[in-house]
Amino acid sequence: ISLNAPKNKGSLALAYRNAVEGFNAEARLRFNSGFPAVSAGFEGDVPSTKVVDVTLGYDVPSTAATIQLAVSNLFDSDNQAFVGVPNIGRFLMLRVKYDIF
Q1: Which of 21, 59, 70, 100 has the fewest CB atoms within 10 Å, counting from its CB?
Q2: From residue 62, how far is each of 2, 21, 65, 66 by CA, in Å?
Q3: Which of these, 52, 93, 53, lies nearest to 69 by C-alpha position?
Q4: Who contacts 76 (Cβ-Cβ below 8 Å, separation ≥6)?
């Protein structure tokens, strides 16, 4: 019986924060072992994956605003989450957050 899930899965992260300068950063390595999958007509092996994510942030001086850039799958490596679905490529998101309270 296929459980449709990897036996080994995890992540490792390293973060840096400089409150005085208003800068923060984080790098994260996510990994999954390969696994057999059977679901709704989709059957096959999902390959193991290693993905690097990076987040950079900056607190804008004299405001309550924070600017963050998040990059998932930094190296645009093959990352197929399940059989029959497309590879998930690099994803960039720029976010501006403003704290009201």
Answers
A1: 100
A2: 55, 12, 9, 11
A3: 93
A4: 89, 90
Which of 16, 24, 11, 30 shows the shortest CA–CA distance to 73?
A: 30
Tell whether pTM > 0.85: no
18 Cβ contact partners less than 8 Å away, ≥ 6 residues apart: 24
Task: Specify whether the CB–CB gap between 44 and 21 falls below 8 A.
Answer: no
Q: Are 25 and 54 in contact (CB under 8 A)?
A: yes
Mean pLDDT per 10-residue segment, the chain (101 residues) = 86 96 96 90 90 97 94 93 88 94 81
What is the helix (H) or strand (E) element at residue 93, kind and residue range? strand 91-98
